[in-house]
Specification:
single chain; 406 residues; mainly alpha; 72% helix
């Protein structure tokens, strides 16, 4: 009679050893050695091992989330750090950038240079303008009223500019929030899939435990059946390992894709910032040239106006002298009445010609005054545009050229 084949009972330790071997690949991906963790969970229950192995890593997710949210790009070429804190309109320049950009020969007395690049050489201050006193109170009040109106327009333009900057900042922050919300949705979906797989694995493990108990109870009478069940358990375990490998691979691929999308988004944002800076520099240089040309025209017009006023005053004095001389001649020499009458007619014609010339000079003076006021208004408009561009790039109150516009 042949001896019955002795069936080795199902070993829990051997099963745990196999599961710990299956974790070597994943533990190595986390930066730890598989040999050091081979028997780490051998004495723990299967449910705890399963939880440790498939638990969602929230710290790692927050690490990837915070990696690009408040990152300090101080090692890049453009050291601009945008802080996404509770204050939605705060922009800071990296202190490391300020440390390397200080120059002892800077005209700003130690303040940091522009973060966009080397600032252009500053033009020499304009020569002092000739002060022309205004004795007419009506004209003085008119000029003061015009000055108040220009100040109110400048204040209104500054308010509109601040509103535009606020709207742009809010839109950019909303775009970043949308990207983060999409990423969080993907992570939540992955977490849900992980939970589903965990429940499936727990169900499979419970079934395996039930089969194991039945096989131990029936191993004396049903040795062949126990062997078949043991083969089924091994197949189920291999299937679980395969599912685990596939799941880890899919999670890594999703994380890699999300990192790639973040990198592309950051590169696009930096390219957009560079383009805006280049356009700002070109526009500022053009506006400076236009402003210098207009200032030159205004100075020439004022000089010409002063010359015309001086010429007009001299002509009036000469005319008065001639009229006085003619009147004295009429009173003192009645005998030469006809001759004096002829001279008086000549003087009247001369006076009429001078009055016509005076009228023409007054018209030209009025035209030059209007041109000067028009150029001053255009200069104020250009100055407000330059100040608005400086505030857009450097922020409110941080422009190094602020003192040249006041």
């Amino acid at each position: 009679m042949a001896e019955p084949h002795h069936i080795q009972p199902y070993s829990r330790d051997r099963h745990d050893y196999r599961r710990s071997n299956s974790r070597d690949h994943y533990s190595g991906s986390r930066g730890n050695s598989g040999e050091n963790r081979k028997y780490e969970y051998a004495d723990q229950p299967r449910s705890m091992m399963h939880r440790k192995e498939y638990e969602y890593d929230h710290d790692r997710d927050h690490q990837y989330r915070d990696r690009y949210r408040g990152r300090d790009y101080s090692d890049d070429r453009h050291h601009v750090h945008v802080s996404h804190s509770r204050s939605p309109h705060r922009e800071e320049i990296s202190p490391r950038y300020l440390k390397h950009q200080k120059s002892p020969a800077s005209p700003l007395r130690g303040r940091s240079a522009s973060p966009i690049g080397h600032s252009p050489p500053m033009a020499p201050p304009p020569p002092p303008r000739e002060f022309i006193p205004i004795d007419d109170p009506v004209e003085r009040r008119s000029l003061l009223a015009q000055l108040d109106e220009l100040k109110s327009k400048l204040h209104h333009n500054n308010g509109e500019h601040n509103k535009e900057i606020s709207i742009i900042k809010v839109s950019k922050e909303n775009e970043i929030k949308d990207v983060l919300a999409k990423k969080d949705a993907l992570v939540e979906e992955s977490h849900h899939r992980i939970q589903c797989l965990k429940r499936e694995i727990e169900d499979e493990e419970r079934k395996a435990e039930q089969i194991k108990e039945e096989s131990i109870a029936m191993q004396q009478n049903h040795a062949n059946r126990v062997g078949e069940l043991q083969m089924q358990i091994e197949q189920s375990q291999s299937r679980l390992d395969q599912i685990k490998h596939e799941h880890e691979d899919s999670v890594r691929e999703q994380i890699r894709q999300q990192d790639e999308e973040k990198r592309i988004l950051r590169d696009d944002y930096e390219k957009l910032i560079d383009q805006v800076r280049k356009e700002y520099h070109s526009t500022r240089e053009e506006l400076k040239d236009i402003l210098n040309d207009r200032n030159t025209l205004v100075s020439e017009a004022k000089t010409k106006l002063a010359d015309l006023k001086h010429y007009y005053t001299e002509e009036m004095e000469n005319l008065k002298k001639e009229v006085d001389h003619l009147q004295n001649s009429i009173q003192t020499s009645k005998r030469l009445n006809e001759k004096q009458n002829q001279e008086f007619d000549i003087a009247k014609k001369t006076n009429k010609n001078l009055q016509n010339e005076n009228y023409n000079l007054q018209k030209e003076i009025t035209k030059l005054t209007k041109d000067a006021e028009k150029y001053e208004i255009e200069n104020e408009t250009l100055r407000s545009k330059i100040m608005r561009l400086d505030k857009l790039v450097y922020g409110k109150g941080k422009s190094p050229f602020k003192k040249f516009y006041n």
